[in-house]
User: What shape does this take?
Amino acid sequence: MSVHVQDLVLPVLAAVAVTVAVAIRVRAGGTEAAKGRRGRLRELAWCAALFVLSVIVMSSVSSLPGPGGLSSWWIAVPVVAAIIIICWPRVAARIVPVALIFYGLSGFVVARDFAVGGVINSYGLTPVGNPGFQADLILPQAYGLLLLGGWLVLRSADPVLVRARLRLGSIARAPLGEQLRTLALLPVVAVLAGMLAPRLWLAGGAALIVTAALVFGVLWVIRRWPARAAQLATAGLLCAGIAGLVIAAAWRGASTIDVEKCTSSAQPVPSQGSAQPVPSQGSAQPVPSPAASAQPKKPSFVPSAQPVYSKPVCVAMPPLFVGGGTAADVADVVWGQALPYGAVLVDSQHTADAAGVEGLALLALGTWLAPQTFPLVRRVLGGTPDRELTKRVELLTESRAVAVDTASADLRRLERDLHDGAQARLVALGMNLRAAERLIPTSPEAAIALVAEARKTSMMALMELRELVRGVLPPVLADRGFADAVRALALDSPLHVETDIDLPGRLPVPLETACYFAVAELLTNAAKHSGARDARIAIGHSGRFLRIEVTDFGLGGADPGKGSGLVGVERRLATFDGILAVSSPVGGPTMVVMEVPCALSSPKTSSC
Amino acid sequence: MRIVVAEDLFLLRDGLVRLLDAHGFEIAAAVEDAPGLLTALIRERPDVAIVDVRLPPTFTDDGLRAAIEARRQVPGLPVLVLSQYVEQLYARELLADRAGGVGYLLKDRVFNDDQFVDAVRTVASGGTVMDAEVVTKLLSRRAREETLARLSAREREVLELMAEGRSNSAIAQRLFVTEKAVSKHSTSIFTKLDLVPSDDDNRRVLAVLAYLNG
Assistant: This one.
């Protein structure tokens, strides 16, 4: 390790300063959101993570070559982090996962610079100019950080991240296993793109657009066809695994290959950026070529700018590229110094071995996933029951039980209410009228009093029937449908409720009834428990899903597990394959999001 | 006073017609569906229409929509809407044109024929009559209190009864105060709601509308 002491002075000083600042802040009671000892510790941990990350980012980026004086400006990164920690400590939990993802992605850039141009920049634990570490640690770190960031985003309760997550569509609330299988497409694409097109993947300029298009394309596929995305990811894993084995095998068998052909066609690739290449530590014999000697020599540490590793690489090509020029031609265009393969930068015998191990692991993972994602494979393999199908059957059995229970409980409640309410009143009414009948000849005064009482009883009976009908099918829902029924609910609520409803057609009747009662329950909850004065209901329809958001600006801290009625709502929605998510940080606001798959009937052909 | 009655159930329509007849109203037409109601209202131009919310052909809120449509074509046409349920949403839609001459009552209010006939007369003369249930619900809303915070508790009580369509003497009786006290309260309400002095009935309607529409 050749880390200079002076490199550490500033970060350490800043770290001490900010830690003190955070300690003071936490001692003073923390923010309103961070209630209790654990909450405060968690906030402190996020803040510390943010600061450490900012220092790492600073030390990585400041080592980049650039105009003089640039590097000292990067001290601004931890300073900004410190300002965020002091002023908005809650935001740290939001920034860290996202920053981890971006820093992880930047690892690919660093690795690419090395792979293509032999440039090694400082990244994470790999300091600049330390040949002992070489680039071996860059990609594992990049993938590690990327996966950690992704994991944190998936598990975060931060409202902004929750909302961003929900943009992924149905997969956002699928079981964790399914989420991971589907989202695996992103790292798999990263592995393949980094291997096959390092000049287009995460490079600067126009290539950045290619990268962005690729990432958003993958996200779109995940959102639109989650099942297909999982299949693609599995197929990608299998391909990548085979490629890794081929790379390892090709390296071993390289001596028997016609080296001359490969190397002669593998012309030097101009290194990117102004950085100077660092000597590679590969153990494969460098093959000097005429082109190398034509280049200006850097006496101290550049033996050759020639892409010395094109030999094994070009052997690895045929399985990856079918058709379109010789393998060596492609290798020439694609790679320079080293081949990024997943978490390994292949530039030597031992890294090639590592690539083989990684290939085996990816292959094993792909093989394990294949029966889960491809129904065909599952059927061919036979034996084991279809897990998806089993799960679906379990879910349907459960939701059917709930539906049956709910229906019979509703009927029983209706019967009891009628029996104790309207029916009893009608009996009393009949008795009163009979008594009045008898009293008319003898004491008309008393008879009149009884008749007046009978009238009152009939009004009470009507009132009770009205309440009963409202509980079965509210009149506005029957008259106007879901949108106006929710507006009527908003008007009737003791809270000040803002509504934002955008529904082009009418929902199927059973669904709109279920959704209406769900919204009614949530509003009642908000009015009873949240302490809020204001609430908001947003309802929209996105082609295949009805989406309902009920937000109250109250105390927050609602726990879906603790009999808050949310469980009941969720269970009833499950009958319609609907899902419910709650975000309720202490201090509020509480946001409940429900999504139910459904098609709208157009207003004209409404069959409701 | 000429009245158009719209009610799809024969028993109730017959009962209403008989009740109104007994109180000396003239029934210009008694119809059973929404299209019939609209044509009768445009043709007869009655002094007041009594309309059930739920009517054929769709048996949803056809009556209400026909009444609103008729008031669009004949501005200020007095309409008293009857229903098994009162909904704030519908109350707001009825009051939206701010023209007065609107009533919205539960059907069982017909049981008390004196009060019902009073309500019919109030609506016919351009007043506003809201069911006590709507008024109570409005009162329970905290947001509402802010806009009417300037009124004292007693003044709010008076305004509430005004919204139900009661006269000053009826309010006095209900609150056990003199009629003079009631008119003093109502003057104070008008001042606090920034209603310029004009004829008392008009200001009454405007005060009620301000109260109901927020």
Q: What stands out?
A: The interface with chain A takes residues 53-54, 60-61, 83-85, 87-90, 92, 107-108, 111, 137, 140-143 of chain B (CB under 8 Å). The mean pLDDT of chain B is 85. The CA atoms of residues 48 and 78 of chain B lie 5 Å apart.
